[in-house]
Amino acid sequence: MTGSLRVLRAELVRICASRAAWLGLALVALIPALRVWAAIVAQRAKEIERMASGGGAPGLSEGNGWALLVDGWRAGLMLATALLLVQSARALAGDRETGVFRLAVTRSASRSGAVVGRALMGPVITLAMVLFAGGGALLAATALGADFGDLVEDDYTIFSAFEVREELRRALVGAFLAMIAVHGFGLLVSSTSRGPVLALAGSLATILLWDVFKEDLGDVRWFVFASHAPTFADGSGMREMASFARGMSDAGHPEAVHNMGLALSPAAWVLSVILACLAVRRRPI
Q1: How many CA atoms lie within 13 A of 282 on its CB side?
Q2: How does pLDDT run across 182-222, given as a tens digit for each residue?
Q3: CA-based, 20 to 30 A from 242: which of 72, 115, 199, 218?
């Protein structure tokens, strides 16, 4: 475990010194802000159009900021999931190709320890991306005067602000765990690939193919961790949260699906790391 922690510290230093990593974080924060801005512009354009035609103002009269926040945050998490897959898919294959992995194994850790150290980067990077995405969306929505009170329509309170926050926390926990599992999957593909290009292509192709076909599998898709992640064909709790934040009372994953994600995602991450360790131990470096 000591070797794994040494590798983790070295990886943290390396990623903090990487301009590409900081650019990725900047994009993860910028995209949600742009999404919020675009949504507000479109919303106000529709209001002006309705006023010009003499129509009313349907929809929420209070608490409209929650939908903007969730939409922006969700957009950032989609990008973050793709970036996590890219980072993890290149990790082992790229370091093996450049000789960095051999150096780590020779000086500070066993093969398995070097894999575990890189796997522990998953939760750290994921947490940073989730916070940056949420911060970008929140700052943009607040700066543009969004209302984060109760969801009210025609003087009727659909959900309190507390209920919305709790549902958002629930959706974020499920998405966070699934994103860590995606990082572990990329690491597994990287451990079995001949080079970083093949690892990146294989991991991205697998996730994209799953996105294409998962809807056809019905409820069976929830037994796969990737269905709980905010991918570009998003089926995660954050998609349901977007409807909940607009006052739709039937939105949100059923409790069974949510709990399945809470159990499957960590299990998938652990299994991916174990298989990656076994693969690296059997391959020449």
Answers
A1: 9
A2: 999 999 998 888 888 888 888 889 998 998 888 888 888 89
A3: 218
Fill in the amino acid letter for 257.
V
Domain around 7 = 2-282
Are 123 and 173 in contact by the 8 Å Cβ rule? The answer is no
Structural domains counted in the chain: 1
Six-digit token string for 73: 């945050």
Using DSSP, state whether 125 is helix, strand or coil.
Answer: helix
Instruction: Give the separation between CA 206 and CA 49, rounded to whole angstroms.
Output: 44
Cβ pair 79, 34 in contact under 8 A: no
83-130 confidence digits (pLDDT tens): 999 999 888 777 676 666 665 655 666 777 778 888 999 999 999 999
Coil, strand, or helix at residue 157? strand
Higher pLDDT, 51 or 171: 171
Cα Rg of the chain (Å, integer): 21
Neighbours of 15 (CB within 10 A): 17
Alpha-carbon 131 to chain mean position: 11
> Largest Cα–Cα distance of the chain, in whole Å?
75
Contact 140, 39 (CB under 8 A): no
Cα dist from 281 to 45, 119, 177, whole Å: 59, 15, 27
Residues whose CB falls within 8 Å of the CB of residue 53, separated by 6 or more in sequence, listed in order:
none
Tokens 């949100």 map to which residue? 252
